[in-house]
Structure of Carotenoid 9,10(9',10')-cleavage dioxygenase:
Amino acid sequence: MATIMSCCASTFPVMMISCSAESRSSSPPRIGLPKSSTSTNYSASASASASVHHKISSTVDILPRTIKETSVKLLDDFVDGVFEFVDQPYLPSQSNFAPVDEIGEPVHATLIHGSIPHDFPEGVYIRNGANPLHGAPKSAVSVFGKSSHIWVEGEGMIHALYFNKDHSSTDGSSWTTFYNNKYVTTDTFQLEKQRKKPVFLPATEGDPPAVLSAFLLNLTLEILGIGMRLQNPGIVHSLVTLRLIRYEKDKYARIGVMPRYGDVDSMLWFEVKPCCAFHIINCYEEDDEVVVMACIAKDSIIPGPDLGKDKFGWFSRGFKKGINQNGEGAEEYRKIEYHMLPENTFCTGASFVAKQGAADEDDGWLITFVHNEDNNVSEVYIVDAKKISSEAVAKIRLPCRVPYGFHGAYMPAS
């Protein structure tokens, strides 16, 4: 069996008030008059009033936090008493989906089959993936049934291979490679690390009552301040007979951009040509623009009740078959090339590394993490993009196993 690598928290508004007062007149000279009891009583009363006001303010500040901490404690006790977390067993073919530990310091990867090209750019190849903090993906068993994680869930981990060139070598082809991995320290990662246990119930697949209860219990009672204003109110109930979703290809699609900790008033909408976006690839800032990369379809991809009957027919329904009997000339020649990996060796995603000063679109290399299921060895392959069907020019053996993951990128040093 072989695989084919193709080339083709909201913040509250703060009010700041600056107060100023006219300068007081200088104090009169002391003349030894006896202190008035009224003055003493007034000072004591003012001091007591200020103390009470401070206590009330402190109580008002502490009360919401106390309520929140108490509700979280009660929710934790309920989940611990009703739900039991169990490890999902791995099938023999799923061994490389298991998580790995952080290795700490970078480790020198010394075993290289082939050679890294002399004009390969210095830099780092990184790839992300799911890496559950507390062992294998979990299932939660309760009176509601069983719900389970899937392999794409879990804390995120970055795997990195660094390429450093020895410029003192005579031929300029001496390289030093280091591997390292590290968890992505998100808020949820820090929370689970602090509590030393899973803090979210699996809510992806399983028995419907278990999935629903997990989904509801994973919610919090805190509103983060992201609201939407609807033009018309609506309600969905058991008597629905309307067509709730419709693709209007004569209208437009909208892309919403909002700061990470923004609110509804900070959202900007951009109208684009009608399309259905079904996977956001990346989003980043470039100068004064926000660039959104997504997979889109010009026609509707809203699934219907017969989606599962004939998926191949469903995907091809937007194409019209036929032969042009009166056509002249020739279409541009299109071809698909692939790199065949060794038997029982698999990869997850490949990144293109362009040559410095590249002129052609395939002037560079493909780089990817691969894993051999037979010997449990992980490597990084470098493949010449102009000769993608040929043997990898370099296979760098890694000091530890790298689980299958998602997306990667090569970051040149310059």
About this structure: The longest strand covers residues 276-286.
